[in-house]
Protein: Rhomboid family intramembrane serine protease
Organism: Peiella sedimenti
Amino acid sequence: MPWIQAEPPPPPRREPMLNAPWVSTGLALALGGLFLLQLQYGDPARLDGWTLIPAAVLAGDWWRLISSILLHADWGHVVMNALGVFIFGAPVARRMGRGAGGGVGLILFFLICGVLAGVGYTLVHAGSDDRLVGASGAVFGLVGASIRLEGGDSLRRLTDRRVLGMSLAWTIANLIAGFLTPDRSIAWEAHLFGLAAGLLLIGPWLRLTPRPRLPDEAI
C-alpha cells in the first residue's frame, strides 16, 4: 500500500502590525501634507483670510469654518491632530465600513464635527478678532464618536456610565489644559463642542450611512 503524504498545514495568517483602516490613515497623512503645502506656498497675508476669526464669520465669512480646519500653527500642532485622527478615527472608520462609501462618510463626519466646533467657538467668542486654526475640533468629534462605539453593531447610550465617565474625563482634561496654558492658546471651547458633536451625531450618521455587513460577521 503506497504511503500517502499529507500536505503540511498552511502557515498561520499573520496580522499586520498596523491594521488601521486606509481612510483614517490617509486622513492623518493628508493633514501633514496640507501643512507642508502651507509652509511651502502659504503667504501669511493670504492665509489670514482662511483662519477662523469669530467676528469675520459672523459678518458672513462662513467658509472660514471649513478652511481653518485645513491649517495648523506648527509641526507639533499638526502631529498631535494627525495622531488623534489615526487613533480615534480608526474605530469610527471600521464602523462606517470599507470602500469609498465608508471613506466619504468618515471624511464628511470629520468635517461636520470640525465646522460645529468652529460654530460653537464663534458663538462663545462673538466679536473677537483672534485667529483660530487646526483640526482639533474635528478630531474631538472622532473622540466623541469612538466613546459611543461598542462591539458589533450597537452603540452605547448617551446615559451609559462609560460614555458619561469618559466624556467627563475629556472635559476636565480640556479645562485643565485650557486654563493652565500660560498664553491660553488652546481652544478648549472648540474641543468640547467637537466632542459633543461626535457624541450626538454618530448615531444618526451611522443610520444615514449604513455599514455593509462583511462576510465573516455574524448575522
Observations:
- Residues 99-124 form the longest helix (26 residues).
- Residues 22-208 form a domain with the Rhomboid-like fold fold (CATH 1.20.1540.10).
